[in-house]
Amino acid sequence: MTNMTDEQYGIPADGHARIKNVCQFIEEYATAMLSAGATTSRIEHCVERISKRYGIISDLSLLPSRILLTVWDKNHTHNYSLVGHTHKNGINLQTVTSLSRLSFLDIPLETACGQMKAIIATPRMNKWIVILLTALANLSFCRLFDGDWYAMGVVFAATIIGNVYKNFMIEKHCDIRFTTIVAAYISAIVGSSCFIFGFGGTPQTALGASVLWLVPGIRFINAICDMTNGHYVVSQSRMTDAVITTICLSLGLCLALLTLDIQWK
Predict the structure, then answer these.
(1) What residues pair up with 85 in beta bridges, in sequence order?
(2) Angle between helices 176-191 and 149-171 (to 10 degrees)
(3) Which among 103, 81, 87 has a CA at the least distance from the CA of 24?
(4) For residue 194, what are the CA distances in angstroms to 43, 121, 186, 190, 251?
(5) What is the C-alpha to C-alpha distance for residues 116 and 98, in angstroms, rounded to an integer?
(6) N or C: fewer beta carbons within 10 Å in the chain?
(7) Looking at residue 2, what is its pLDDT?
């Protein structure tokens, strides 16, 4: 992402310099949105609102890891172009929501830039809270598929243990695909407890639901939304990424079944 100083955020009297500063703001804004996992349609609508607010015309092209932006004044006498590079920090819906709200505010450019920097710098939710909420959500999925109380308890434990290992490997900068395989393998091993110890009457549900927390649902949804919006390159990239993640979690589940010699029925 482009680094901008506070002086760049001001709007000088010169028209071209003003166009340049607005372009820099929109470039960083759109790059942050795309990096956080926003859909292409949301990014376009937000950029359009910002462009109208500051009286400019913007031409935005979105690619999987780049944005191409050209900004014009209304008379098409001055323009400025930038290329933004996305960063891989994972999907962050809190950032997407906050940046979307920012596009509705009628505030000076300097204020908007300050708020955007504060939003981008906002730390993520505490990882232990995320792990707990993820485990509760996965437990609910288990119950949705008629899992009994034993199965629900095993799924809860499998999700927490697998998530802890996943976060540890991510902090060690391990490859995300290998990390997904290991996390799915560990979760499936714990999820097979009902098979091994004869707990409850729904061991299949416990084992199947133990890896559901790894399913990249948001990426699948975003890929479909991008496809319907006509951004086929971004859609294909996100769909491919989601499919690879699904294959990795399936591989981890299969390795667990082979390790414990469990016959799936």
Answers:
(1) 66
(2) 150
(3) 81
(4) 46, 43, 15, 9, 21
(5) 9
(6) C
(7) 41
Q: Which residue is listed with tokens 């690619």? A: 63
Segments of the chain scoring below 70 in pLDDT: 1-15, 264-265
Per-residue pLDDT tens for 101-117? Answer: 999 988 898 899 999 99
Give me the residues paired with residue 61 across strands: 68
CA atoms within 13 A on the CB side of 149: 0
The CA distance from 136 to 130, in Å, is 10
Tokens of 30: 């759109």
Closest CA to 30 of 56, 69, 4, 57: 69
**pTM beyond 0.90:** no
Q: Which two structure tokens, joined as six digits, stand for 82? A: 């930038």
Regarding beta strands 79-85 and 66-73, do their DSSP bridges make them parallel or antiparallel, or are they unpaired? antiparallel
